[in-house]
Design brief:
By secondary structure, the protein is an alpha/beta fold. Helix content is 28%, strand content 26%. It folds into two domains: 340 residues, Zn peptidases (Aminopeptidase, 3-Layer(aba) Sandwich), CATH 3.40.630; 75 residues, Immunoglobulin-like (Sandwich). The protein binds zinc ion (ZN). The site of zinc ion (ZN) has 6 residues, from helix 5.
């Protein structure tokens, strides 16, 4: 007599246990699915049922919809679209961003996690050749889906936006569309996590870098009006703009993850001379960072599939490292969880204490904050060194001389979860 029926292994783990950690197998399956659409070039046929960017977008929307059904409708799938025209889309092309909204208590405050679904080969205008785009950027899109699977089981204060953008390779169209959508709809954007090329560990020279991920951020806001920029420099705030504060928060979050990756906080907004879909967000003043692998392989980006001179070119699944991609996903998930749980960061922080032995701090109160954390550090250090928690929107740091000290303030949720840190400067009039 057979006592135990054969139960598939997947059913032996509870759904909750199965979805609390990013799964390399699920990430691989999603990247393979995205590659299966042949090309996802922005100018490819949007209506073909199985090939091209339209089919890929519909699959992504369906997948988000399934994740939403599994959490009782906690994710609403919606597209935003607009026609863009430039020299890489001379006849104009309808750009569609597929978005999943997981509403928080505050529908207007958002944290965004995104990747770009479009792909390309050597000729950026070639919309018909196979362009697998496994790493660039099916890796980022798969990460977004996996983050949704995990975070859709939880409730947050802020709304999470899961996004697959189009038109990155033709001119950052999808990033522009989503950033302008944020402005038009009056969202308070607490963080934008752009994931673009996040799934390989072997570089151009054969070197393997599997222990770190680069997080790119600007220091001073690109679009801060000149008087504000000058004042920020005068205060020594070049390393503490909102996007840099986000990168430092990511670093802190990653440092607490078991068997995680080191975050290489690159102090420029993107790779040298290059950009990505977070750029349009920076142009509108939103805190945004780019995640990318520790070492890139240029034979596996934007290449026709071919072999030449003993080299194999092309952005294919076999070159990827899904255990690594799962670790990058875990950092995104933990960062989103923190920033969607915490209140918004203080809108402004002012410090004083010139010609005195104490430093005084005050800031704009944050709706919904249960308290605040005042951070400070020596003015020759990059990371916060000391802090004190307070209830009211002001504090005095006794015995700390303002000339030698940088100060910042974060807002705290009831459970102590912390927002980004807002850097303190002189009062602006
Ligand atoms: Zn890319």
């Amino acid at each position: 007599m057979r006592i135990l029926p054969l139960i598939p292994l997947a059913l032996l783990t509870t759904p909750a246990a199965a979805q609390t950690q990013p799964s390399p197998a699920r990430l691989k399956a999603d990247v393979e699915k995205l590659v299966s659409f042949g090309t996802r070039h922005t100018l490819s046929d949007p209506d073909h049922p199985t090939r091209g960017i339209g089919a890929a977008r519909r699959w992504f929307a369906g997948e988000l919809g399934r994740i939403g059904e599994a959490c009782g409708g906690c994710i609403e799938v919606a597209n935003v679209a607009r026609t863009f025209t430039n020299d890489r889309a001379p006849k104009g092309v309808e750009i569609v961003d597929v978005l999943g909204f997981q509403p928080g208590r505050d529908p207007k405050r958002v944290v965004i996690v995104m990747g770009h679904i479009d792909s390309r080969v050597t000729d950026v205008m070639n919309a018909t050749s196979d362009a697998p785009g496994a790493n660039d950027d099916a890796s980022g899109v798969a990460l977004v889906l996996e983050a949704a699977r995990i975070l859709s089981r939880e409730k947050f204060d802020a709304t999470i936006v899961y996004a697959a953008l189009s038109g990155e390779e033709q001119g950052l169209f999808g990033g522009t569309l989503l950033a302008e959508t944020a402005r038009e709809r009056g969202w308070t954007v607490s963080a934008v996590l752009n994931n673009d090329i996040v799934g390989n560990t072997v570089g151009q020279d054969g070197r393997r870098v599997a222990d770190r991920v680069r997080v790119f951020s600007e220091g001073i806001r690109e679009v801060e009006p000149l008087p504000g920029q000058l004042a920020r420099r005068a205060d020594g705030g070049e390393d503490d703009g909102p996007s840099r504060a986000l990168a430092k928060a990511v670093d802190g979050v990653a440092g607490k993850l078991p068997r995680g990756l080191d975050v290489f906080v690159v102090r420029r907004f993107d790779r040298f001379g290059r950009g990505g879909d977070h750029s349009p967000f920076l142009k509108l003043g939103y805190p945004a960072v780019r995640f990318s692998v520790g070492v890139e392989n240029y034979d596996q980006q934007h290449q026709d599939l071919r072999s030449a001179d003993g080299k194999v070119y092309g952005d294919t699944v076999d070159k990827m490292d899904f255990a690594y991609l799962a670790k990058v996903t875990a950092i995104n998930v933990a960062t989103l969880r923190r920033l969607a749980t915490a209140p918004a960061a203080p809108a402004s922080v002012t410090i004083g204490g010139a010609l005195a032995t104490d430093t005084s701090v005050k800031w704009a109160p944050v709706p919904g904050a249960s308290g605040y954390r005042v951070h400070w550090r020596r003015a020759d250090a990059q990371d916060w060194q000391q802090h004190v928690d307070v209830k009211d929107a002001q504090a005095t740091i006794e015995g700390v001389i303002v000339d030698d000290t940088f100060v910042g303030v974060s807002a705290l949720a009831a459970d102590g979860t912390e927002s980004l840190v807002t850097f303190g400067g002189r009062e602006r009039r």
